[in-house]
Amino acid sequence: MRLVILDDYDLASEWAAKYIRNRIVQFRPSADRCFTLGLPTGLPRAHPESYHSYMWNNFFKHIDIDPANAHILDGNADDLEVECQAFEQKIAEAGGIELFVGGIGPDGHIAFNEPGSSLVSRTRVKTLAKDTIVANARFFGNNLSKVPTMALTVGVGTVMEAKEVMILITGAHKAFALYKAIEEGVNHMWTVSAFQQHPRTIFVCDEDATLELRVKTVKYFKGLMHVHNKLVDPVLSVKDQ
Amino acid sequence: MPSNKSVSDAPITQFINCRILRDHKLQRDDLWVREGKILNPEKLFFDEQGYADERVDCEGSIIAPGFIDVQINGGHGVDFSQASDDAGSGVSFVAQKILEHGVTSFCPTLVTSPADVYHKVLPQVKVHDGGRHGAGVLGLHLEGPFISVEKKGAHPEQFLRTFRSGAGSLDDLMEAYGSLDNVAMVTLAPELSGSQSAVRELCRRGVAVSLGHSVANLSQAEDAVRSGASFITHLFNAMLPFHHRDPGIVGLLTSDQVPAGRTVYYGMIADGIHTNPAALRLVLVTDAIAAMGLPPGRHTLGQQVIEIQGLHAYVAGTKTLSGSIATMDECVRHFKQASGCSVEEALEAASLHPAQLLGVSHKKGNLDYGSDADLTLLDDGLNVRATYISGEEVWRKGS
């Protein structure tokens, strides 16, 4: 894996953004060649805090993506199982996920693959763990009873099939999960650990997220920053390709 | 074009590089318009998989809802209170000119006039939508003749009227005006006997009632509000001042007798000459007269001759103010500068509040999804750069 450690949240975000940009540009996407970006999925559509609103306000409205190319799992679909299978199908039809970008839960989950999820699972409905509900309460006025208890999610197996996986981890509250994910063994109680068996994983984090790691690990990867930085410097442009 | 046509295949315009007034704040966001209305881009993206046909680069402008002037007596040589055979084109001429000031809807106002002026003019002025031809007419504002002699201001005394007592106030209204069909608002003095029933009659017909040119005490004003009155015409001007033992009409602002769920709005002429402004349910009006937009000299306002001295408009030969020659955007700028209020508050006083007063805020006066796309594009100094009605550009600076 690559472990890229930046000083703070803003620097970590910027590094990750530049990396994604360079990856997209190098791929040379065209009308026939889609750069498929996978993002974790979630809550039922109807709510202003739904993933549709979140993705619109934070991503889609700022870019010129063709709406037909934006696929979000629909928690309001009539048949959720069919919805999940259709999603897997769409990924296959697009040629597979080129780059999967995700975060990590305080309980070490990737997407909504809660502790105990099969490490070869596919897109499906999951019941959320207490930790996740508590973590999401801030989007629902800190009212636990208003947080949805179920979510549609890509599976661990689905993400493992991506050509590259990028995990963004910031904040001290995620530090223990990061430790479990990269310094302990592969374990379905900390599903992010599955990526130890993926050929191309990159973790981007800030200083606070490294608080539970061994000094040796942190020093090793910090020492590699000059190599890592070549991935984002120079920032590429479609015009130059 | 770019949409799965599940809702509509009309073209979609996206205004980019702008700050829009939404939820009482200026926000860096794009504004989307389709078929003359503000469009929800998130629904467009997910439900229709649509995107814009045309992008308009606003170069950093502020986009505010189009201004609404509920008190304007004329402008550019046109006086609405004249018994003209072609009142309609006078209104249209002014409607076109005020697009330059960012006004997209207005209420042509008639001052106290003899019956034949009302009977002639009113049938010629109809409520209609704005467009390239000019700002939309939301209805007439009839200021007078049922007002107080003591506070007539520039209104001609010989044409003031009272209500004949008894239940005849509808007859009085019809006798004076001829018809109430395209009337949006009437200003009257609530101390006149019979006026309470007039207020109720007008409200029943969906006409907003405003109190002004009056010596009413607070209790009479409160009665009028209970009967349905919802506006105060040019607050402080032509009414008794706020006295600590009887606050008069001005006291409505602090009265606890306003029924729950009702709001009393008040108009201010923020031209720097009529008053020191205050905030809240403030509606900016111009009270502009025919001389607005013209060089200094003598002009008419109904039956009176008005003389312009600098920025002041007086009844000729007196120091009685009569209307203003300010434009709406001047009022917005002056109000902001003089009161120290925020940009959002100044803009809402000229758009959202008049719309709420006239009961049209479900489609005008704001940039909510579904509202009419009447827009005013302004620079940081609140100077108008362009005006749009129903999503169509109707005026641009330099054009």
Automatic annotation (TrEMBL), chain B:
Binds 1 divalent metal cation per subunit. It catalyses: N-acetyl-D-glucosamine 6-phosphate + H2O = D-glucosamine 6-phosphate + acetate. The keyword Magnesium does not apply. Pathway: Amino-sugar metabolism; N-acetylneuraminate degradation. It comes from the Eukaryota. Residues 62-394 form the Amidohydrolase-related domain. Belongs to the metallo-dependent hydrolases superfamily. NagA family. This is N-acetylglucosamine-6-phosphate deacetylase. It comes from Scophthalmus maximus.
